[in-house]
What does this fold into?
Amino acid sequence: MKLKYPNLTFFGLSILAAVVLVWLGFFEKFFSGLGELGYFGAFIAGAIMPFTFAAPMATVSFFYLGEFYNPVGVALWGGLGAVVADLLIFSFFKGGIFKELEEIWQEHSRHNHPWRHAFLVGLFHTKLFHFISLFTAGLLILSPFPDEIGIAVFAYYKLPLKKLVPLSFLMNSIGIWIIVGAGYLLAH
It folds into this structure.
């Protein structure tokens, strides 16, 4: 049996799996031991932070890592881990999920008024909309919120990897450094 939308199905199943893991307390147990791993723990927390259900716990882990380790080192290792996760998310979105969403959009747009479709397409292709979308995507990556939406926007605009990697590293490292710095300041 061939699935009509395999990428969207996988995406939905991964969200379901994450909900089950949160419900079972997996992330809570997992993140409680990251402090013992030092900078490697920062790398792991960074690699998990971009994902929706792990972002809050990874943020708390970074806050506590700041109490015991150099904030710059934690931010750099965490940023590196976040880049790895962002590349995974980017390849997933770039690999076909947008094509599947476009197919659904095309099927749905047949039932809508043509002027509505033309208006939305025109709006989404303005320079102002592009700027706002890319700026918001960068802010989402900088923030302690999950990176999926920001990375999805970059994948949609086909941002080259040579721009995505340094941008992801810089934005994630700055965001993590702010969190770690708060933990450091509270401890000292």
About this structure: The two ends are 59 Å apart (CA to CA). Residues 15 and 103 are 22 Å apart (CA to CA). The first helix runs from residue 6 to 24. Residues 7-187 form one domain.
